[in-house]
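call fold(seq) -> tokens
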Amino acid sequence: MKVSIFIPCFIDQLYPQVGFNMVKVLEKVGCIVTYNPNQTCCGQPAFNAGFHGEAKDVCDKFIKDFEDAEFIVAPSASCVGFVRNYYQKLFNNSIQKDKAQQIAAKIFEFSEFLVDVMKIEDVGASFIAKITYHDSCAALRECKIKDAPRKLLGNVKGLELVEMDDVETCCGFGGSFAIKFEPISAAMGDQKITHATATQAEYLVSTDMSCLMHLDGCIKFKKNKLQVLHLADVLAMQVD
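ret:
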């Protein structure tokens, strides 16, 4: 199966290993992975900041960059949710409407692509650790992803998954929300970390590095020993 990968801005700039690990897993399960070096942003930051005209220009470029792809896979439910749910609204009265619909139908978050499209729940990973999982708002509410990451994690040899309380509650990041409403954002992050720590997990795992970036900052501020890992990082691990 041939897939084109989309690497979000913050992963490209701050967490490139997540992208490499996603490719490692996709190739391991038999995918032919391609990367278009012309790709930039999905347009979500500009859209969420209220610059819909500027966002539309970026989204139009995204459509052109990926219009020939059979499947688009990204390690971010946030970006996938934006493309899937908002492109059609942005291009509703334009000649790009049909292409926006086509793009929305073929973009997938990493875990849902493995489980729902490829029908794979065991990628042969092994990681001896106790973890807890965070449902990002984008994954849970925009992409309807709940079970796929857990099925994949459940088949990682040596891994123990312990669910935290209020697991579906927002972590407080929300992009610009964390900047505009810093005290509220920090309090929400602190609550999430408190619940995660109560599980006695060593690692906090999610589909979204944006949430984990926010939570990692809160963790370091509290001098907590909890560590964060993207799902792709866990699935790429192999203990000999």
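The chain has two domains: 2-116, 123-235.
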